[in-house]
Each structure stands twice: as C-alpha cells, then as structure tokens.
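Subject: Interface between my chains keeps coming out wrong

I've been trying for a while to get a sensible model of this assembly. When I model each chain on its own everything looks fine, but I need the whole thing in one frame so I can look at the contacts. Pasting all components below, labels as-is. Any help appreciated, I'm running out of ideas.
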Amino acid sequence: MSATTESLAHAGHANGHDHHGPAKGIRRWLTTTNHKDIGTMYLVFSLIMFLIGGGMAMVIRAELFVPGMQLVDPGFFNTMTTVHALIMVFGAVMPATVGLGNWMIPLQIGAPDMALPRMNNFSFWLLVAAFSLLILSLFMPGGGPASGWTLYPPLVLQTGDALPLAIFAIHLAGASSIMGAINIIVTIMNMRAPGMTLLAMPMFVWTWLITAYLLIAVMPVFAGAVTMLLTDHFFGSTFFSAAGGGDPVLYQHIFWFFGHPEVYIMILPAFGIVSEIIPTFARKKLFGYDSMVYATASIAFLSFIVWAHHMFTVGMPLAGEMFFMLATMLIAVPTGVKIFNWTATMWKGSISFEPPMLFALAFLFLFTIGGFSGLMMSIVPVDFQYHDTYFIVAHFHYVLVPGAVFAIMGAVYYWLPKWTGHMYDMRLAKLHFWLSAIFVNVLFFPQHFLGLAGMPRRIPDYATQFADWNMVSSVGGFGFGLSQLLFVYLIWRCVRGGEKASAVVWDGARSHGLEWTVPSPAPYHTFDEPPAVRGGEMHS
Amino acid sequence: MKSPKRALAGGVALLLAAAPAYAAWNLNLRVGVTPLSRDIYNLHMIVLWVCVAIAVAVFAVMIYSVATFRHSKGSTPAKFDHSTTAEVIWTIIPVLILVFMAIPAARTLVAIEDSSGSELTIKVTGYQWKWQYDYVEHGVSFFSTLARRHDSARQVGSGVDPRTIDNYLLEVDNPLVVPQGVKVRVLVTAADVIHAWWVPDFGMKKDAIPGFINEMWFTAEKAGIYRGQCAELCGRDHGFMPVVVEVKPRPEFDAWLAARKTTE
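Reply #2:
Try treating it as a single job with all components included. I did that and got this:
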C-alpha cells in the first residue's frame, strides 16, 4: 500500500493539485477525509471480509463433501452458514460497492471529493467496529449466531451471549450504510460539474444514486426489527411471541421488507459497473441509456412490493400469494430490458476481451441464469417445492457471486490502473477469470439439481442420494476459493509496481467518462476546478 | 463465452465418469404421487422450458455478437445508441410470456388453497427435533423421531459409513400412516421454534409456527413410503428430523388405526 501512497503523492505534486499531501503512517488512514483513501480502505476491508467469509464457505463445503458428520458440530455448522452470509452481504459485497462509489463517483461527476468527508471517515471506521463485534460474537459462551442470517425468531432468541453482539454489529453496520448513502446522495445532487445534468451522469453514478435511496429507506427498518428482537430477549416484550399476543411471522414481514430491497442494494451498483465496462470494450455507446435509468428505477420501486415472495410457505391468504406472485413476475420486465440493452450495446460493436470485459460478459450470462431461476421461484405453487431447498441456494449464489461479485471484480480490473498507475498482469488476470468462471459453475450449478431432488438448505449432513452432486459442488467450491488467492496476489503486485498506465488506460475508454481525463494514478486531489462538461456527452 | 460452459460440461462429464456405483445423479423435480404434486411438476416443466427457450434465444444473440463483432477481426463500431421500436418490443413480449405463465400458476394456486371436503385431519406439531402426529378425529397421537441407528451413525466420529445404512437420515421410529386415495387435511403448528413439514412427493411444504395453525392438504394416490425433511432451520439438529409417511390402502389403514387406538 505504501508504494501507492507515495506514487499518489508524487503524481499530485507533479500536477500541482496537491495543497497538503496525506499524513504519514497510520494517522493517514485513521484520520483521512480523502475520498480516494477512504475508497481504498473500503475495498481492502471488503477483500479481507471476502476471504474470511470465503473461509467459512470452505468449512461448509468441506463438511458437505461426503455424507456423514466428519469435521464440525451441527451447531457450529449453523454458525458458519449464518456468519458466512452476514459477512458476505454486509462485510464484503456492500463495502466493496461503497468503496467503488467513494473512489469513482467524485471522479465521474467531476467533484473534488465527497460532500461530507468527515462523515465519510466515520462511516468507514464504524464498519470496522461493527465487524469486530460480529467476529467477537463467534467466541461467546453458547457459540456464535446460528439462526441463519435472517435471524428468525423464536430460534434466534435461543442464541447465547452472541445475540446482543450480533445485533449491535448490525446497528453499527446499518448506521455506517445510512451515512454512506446520505453522503453519496448529497455529493451527486450538489457537486456535479457544471453541464452534467442528471441524465448525463454515468450509469454507475445513477445506479448508486438509486441504491443510496434504497439504503436510507430500508436500513432503519432492519434496525427496528433487530431492536425488537433485543427487547423481546432482554426486556420481556413479545413482538414476535404468540404467547404475549405477538407473531413470529411479523418479524419475517419486517425483515423481508428490508431484505428484498437489500438484494437490489447489492446488485444495482453491479448493473452500473457492467453498464460502464461493456460500452468501453465494445467501443460503442451504451444502448438505451434513458431506458436503463428508468429500468433501474422501476426495479427499485418494485423491490418494495415483492417482499413476501421470500416467505410463501408461512401460510398467507390466497389473495396475498397471488399479489406477491404477480408483482414478483413483473420484475422480469425491467431486468429483461437491461439484459437486452447490454446485448444491443455489443451488437455491431468492436469488442475486445480484456479482463474487465471477461467478467462483465460472465456476469451477463450467469446473472441471467440466476434471473431465470428467480422467475421460476416467483410461481407460488412451484415455489412450495423450491422453498428452503438448495434450489434457492443455487439461485441467490448465481445472482450474487457471478452476479454482484464478478461485477465488482470486473470493476477492480477496470479501474485498478487508474488507482495505482500500474497495469496489472493481464495473463494472470485472465487465468483468474477462467478459473473463477469455471469453478463457480461447478460449485453452484449442481445445487439446482440438489434442490430439485429435495435437499433442504442449511443442513450439515444429508441422505446418500444427494452425495454425488454435493461432492461435485464441494470440488467447485475449493477450486473457486483457491482461485481467489490469485486475485489477492495480482492486486498486491499491481499496487507494488508494473508497467505505467496511461490516463485513458483502455483503448476504448476515450470519451467514456471524466475519470479517464485525469492522470493515472489519479492525483490525491482531483477536480479542484470543475471540468467543463458538455451536456449528454459524458455518459457512456 | 462458450468456453466456460464447454469447460463446465467437460468437468461434469469427467466427474460423472468417475462416479461411484451408488450414484444417484438426480436432475429434476419429482413428479410425486398426488394430483397437486403432478400439477406442480407440470407447472415447473412449463416454466423451465419457457426459460430454456428464452435462454437459447438471448444467449444465441450474445454469443453471435461476441463471436462476430470483434475488435481483433477489424469490426468497426456502429453509431446507433437506441431504438424505440426494439425497446417497445422487448418490453411487451416478456409481459405476454409472463401472462402465459401466470394463468396456469393461478389456477393451481387456487386448487392448493382449497382444503374443503377432506376425510381425515392430522395435526402435525414440530418440536426441536421431532414431529408429533395427532389424528384429531380418532384420538390417536404419537411422536416421530429419527431412527436410533441413524442417530448414532450421524455423530461426528461414529465410524459408520452412511452408505451402509438404507435411507440414511430419512428413517423414523414411528412413521405417519395415511390412507391411499383419501383427501387428508394437515394442520401444521410448532411448540418451540418455526419448523416446516415437507414431503417432496406430496408437492407441498408448510411452515409450522408456534402459536399459529397452518393448513395444507394432499391425496396420495399410490401406496408406499414417502420421505421428507424439516425445511425450516430450527436449530442444532435441524438436519435430523425427517418426515416419513406410509400410505396404506384403506382397509390396511383402518386396521392399523384400530390397533393403534387399542394401544393408546
């Protein structure tokens, strides 16, 4: 990291943009208010969490490698599935997109920094506190949280001393997300360069703007739900207990009113990233920019009225099941529009296959597969069979891993030369891509079959009829996990040095956004003077 | 982009070839033995084939674009960046496809939610980690727990190979017994945390929620033994509370019920 620091500072001096360089040593990172530093910290944090959460996934796949219990206690297995999910959702995917937003939004809209830099620093360090608590909860008497990441009562109330730690971790992570979201909205609304109208913004900025509104709308709902768990457990309230007039299903409604928009909080920035990458490497403008914006907004709106499709088996009235089925099916329409627009962007383009494009293309194919299984699950009668089986595990991993995570990796490969000033090892990056793309399918595709054959999710041991596909899936899991070490190594090497990157970096990036007008690495301070933007020109 | 798929197919083929003799490479949903499970299976196949058809069309265009419009082949980028006609078409066609899928789905859903005219009511109560079955009209009640041999085999370090045990983890001491060809209404509830009662061959699962009673029904048309599991995470031994249902012809069921009544 120190090499980047120096090169950033030098580049800053060389360009005369640097009023005061970064502080030295650890104080720089503790007290920084610079969006690039904070973006870097978010990204590094997310990578560490990705490895920790991934380690837990390895424990899960190792236990499931063959039938019978070989390695862990069933209770610890439940802790692994629970904390793996919490870490991947709140610690890996979300901070990664916040980190990308921090780095790229000011650069893409021509702003000198985020609007609220001190709050920006606070948001990041709150996240560190949150995950310290969550990881600490693993070592509490009674074991870590083991009720699934959805924390359904009454089961979650059987958690030992880990319960308050996990809940406070969620509170802190939620506060961090809300602050981050406020910062992003204020920045986008107030600090765009003159001439950059809303409908001239890059798609990544647009998707983040919509995501930030989703975050502000639903994180407080989640905080409320877990606070009610806390009072039910410690202060004798009975929000979720029928014995006192409450209802355990009420929790599920509140949780999923948060949980469904949360799904889009993770995927909308990924949509934005793909909308940046494909035009660059197809050397053609994004097809249907306006309809992309409207489709994103429609998906965000629909995300608020489909929550009960996560809980079709709780015993809803027929009218409720019918409504949530039809509303859920509707999501296929704007999502389809996006897929078709990306395809049309490539149509009659001039495509080259650098690592970011490879990841974007894999996203296009594999996210679509996750979309199909999602459509299948919207059909309530069939969902009665799919629900809580490995079919759903396959579905959400398809949209989250080759979906959100591949988009994030694509973004890292896209902007890494801009951040570090160095090109990375293209051959190694392509190897990382192919290993990831192959193993992710070996890992998750068989899980469709397991679910259809009747294997429930969240079980540490299974009937022998499920043995074969589980072994295949585990082999894919180990392969995918190991391949990610290449990613870490590649980033580390690129930070330390490498072939000098030009300002434009990618042959096709010319005219695809303001970030390509500043030198690589981007100086510590950029756009002290707002750049001139002619309307409608900058979006890709 | 064909390559990851090709590689996947190759990898899977390799593993298939190396598969041990006990292989059970199930790929699809079971048809099941109730009218509802058949309807659900048919619905599943309709939706699956619609998805496959769309996938073939969409992926074909993507693969064609990637193969044809290559920078390395000297392709020059076109200038167009929108087409209202195309966008209207690919908004309307998906809507029509959705309507086509929604109609049979709604019809099946209405049938699923109609539990009228049942001849036998069974109350199922979930506990950590067993099931209780009450034949409400007959005063018969018993617990159903993972068979002891299976329970000892599944302990860490038991030294027992699961493959040597028939129906590993899917065997209980007292199975639920129901008559063949009779509409059975199931009332589902729980005593501690949420569970879910599920037999894949009956096509249905329903959450068992403490303090509330859910309802579902099935008519098993074929005699036999059907196995399922708890389908909602319910704590440490969630994976070890199977559901086993024995469907007997009516006379045999009546005899079983009479014998059971005398022992109670």
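Reply #3:
Confirming on my end. Chain A touches chain B through 105 residues (CB under 8 Å).
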